[in-house]
User: Fold this.
Amino acid sequence: METILILDFGGQYNQLIARRVRECNVFCEVKPYNTPLEELRAMEPIGIIFTGGPNSVYLDDSPRVDPDIFTWGVPILGICYGCQHLAYSLGGEVTPAQDDSAREYGKTVTRYDTGCRLFKGLPEEGVSWMSHGDYMAKVPEGFALTARSDACPNVAIADEARGFYGVQFHPEVNHTEHGVDMIRNFLFEVCHARGEWTMGDYKNTAITRLREKIGSGKVLLALSGGVDSSVAAALLAEAVGPQLTCVFVDHGLMRLNEGDEVEEAFAKWDLNFVRVDAGDRFLLKLAGVDDPERKRKIIGEEFIRVFEEEAKKVGAVDFLAQGTIYPDVIESGAGDAAVIKSHHNVGGLPDYVDFKEIVEPLRMLFKDEVRQLGRELGLPEYLVSRQPFPGPGLAIRIIGDITREKADTLRLADAIFREEMARAGEDRNANQYFAVLTNTRSVGVMGDGRTYDYTLALRAVTTSDFMTADWARLPYELLDKVSTRIVNEVKGINRIVYDITSKPPATIEWE
Ligand code: XMP
Assistant:
């Protein structure tokens, strides 16, 4: 498979570069800059991209790649730090920008030499997104200057003969006009990619590989009903159906009809589908608990216990399958960052289940590719395009202590909200939306009588990475309709509020 190697120097947009490449139907992998050279070479990349990064290339301890890479005869595109690294390694000079005017941050009008292969077919002028405090004082021999801004004569450099290109700006971000076209030019004009990375092909290759690897072995998978584990299950079902056991632990805190929907989606495959309705067990453990972190802990532990019991019934398995996806693989740890929430994912499994090896068939895929693969495998759209749902489920959307009655109430209200969001087409605009049952009760009047019922909060956010989020500007008519329906149709709720807080300072979930 033709591969683009993305060498990661620690920039914040590195995953975005990988996404852009894959969107052009070219496979790529992100590797740390200090990966042993033999390993990188064994990937036989048709092109290499150096990412940006927070360092200055002229310092002794700045990240550098073994210069042998420049002798491979493989085209290289350096972005921001990657550009400076390329220039510096090949004999150029990079210095701190002497005055403020040579530092560039943000949107910058840039003029391109469209005779350069990287800018072929583009307008001669456009806005690019800069973020650099260093300056290329001298470009290496053999390089031409191929783009300039008012502040900087060498915004881009190119050695067309060797296929080496550098840009000081970020073509991968949306703020750079025609940035995607530049990446496409690098892939197709410079690296001569064929662009054959499609999910249909991937599906067939993955199925063949899984069959080779698994042979006649037994596979066990914990199915949560989320996108990743559902697609992993479908892929394995297609590859080795009867050898697969999917354990779906329903903790009783799923959304309305969710358990049945998941079960139904897998009915077409010949596999061992084990659904454990463990709602009673979980509710018992959660009785009287109102601390969010304790709820997460209890659910996580209980989940493991139930899963273990089921795994024992299956007996010794050869492979434990997991729905790990590419961002989980390449994301670096948060370091010393404070723990805001433990984010317990109930997919976290005990390491003492009796198995020999792990299979992670989605390890190389981004989320949108996982969804695409799910569609190729014939999973229903409601499963494939599902918004994220936290592992602990409704437990962290019922503020305070949890009872079956509250869970039922919230399920109904949440279903109405989701139904109306879809009807209004707003489900395509908000990235996550749900109802929260607060523990506040207030006085209302219904008919001629007084009520003293719960307040329900609606939450809808727009976000690209779920690390920061803004509240969705939902139409008033939609909010009105949802509010009217919920107070009329759901017993126990007499007041609806809409959460208009961004993250930060709030979080997306209430607990
Ligand atoms: P917050 O509330 O931290 O949520 O802004 C960010 C994203 O993470 C989800 N979330 C969780 N997912 N287990 C999960 O698997 C958890 O305990 C958990 N808590 C929050 C949340 O739904 C949002 O998408």
